[in-house]
Amino acid sequence: MTKDDCFFLGKIVKKYSFKGELLIKLDTDEPNLYENLDAIFIDLRGNFIPVFVESSQLHKSELLRVKFEDVDTEADAEALIKCECYLPLTFLPELEGDKFYFHEIIGFKVEDKNFGEVGIIKGVNDTTSQSLFEIDREGIEILIPMNDEFISKVDKENKTIYVDTPEGLIDLYLEE
Questions:
Q1: Residues 4-8: contacts with CB within 8 Å, 24+ apart?
Q2: What is the CATH T-level fold of the domain 102-174, as seen in this structure?
Q3: Residues 13, 25 contacting (CB under 8 angstroms)
Q4: Contact by Cβ (8 Å): 24, 68
Q5: What is the pTM of this model?
């Protein structure tokens, strides 16, 4: 199993007890889906390792309190703080309708109602307040906000996302 076969679950943020328990800040809208895990993968200083979960439960809203096998002391737990946690892509629930996971739309075509074919999605920038489609149009990067008002239809079968962007938005990137 490699990191490419997995999705980011969250990050270990702090110790919870003197018995080696840790708190993982989950990166999800549905934390309750991940309450009873058997194992997760941890990126420990560049090494992708599986760890088995002895027990886990939600703590407050977006924190998962976990006890890993063989992590029994504060020192053991301390070594894992700030590590990123991952789960296999197969753990993701199937999304209905026009909903999608960011990783599954990479390579999709983007068609604009007025402009026509815009390009191919090469990534999603979710570091801003509004997530953005990063679209490659023959070497030119075009950014389109992932706004429900702009997305007309997601055609997963034909790997195409149809958008209706404000007039001139795409042209801004193409003007010399």
A1: 5/88, 5/89, 6/41, 6/86, 6/87, 6/88, 6/89, 7/86, 7/87, 7/88, 7/89, 7/91, 7/92, 7/101, 7/103, 8/84, 8/85, 8/86
A2: SH3 type barrels. (2.30.30)
A3: yes
A4: no
A5: 0.69
The letter for the amino acid at 31 is P
Q: Where are the domains of the chain?
A: 3-90, 102-174
Encode pLDDT of 23-33 as tens digits: 999 988 788 88
The domain made up of 3-90 has a fold known as Elongation Factor Tu (Ef-tu); domain 3 (2.40.30)
Which residue shows structure tokens 């058997």? 38
pLDDT in tens, 9-56: 999 999 998 889 999 999 887 888 888 889 999 999 889 999 999 999
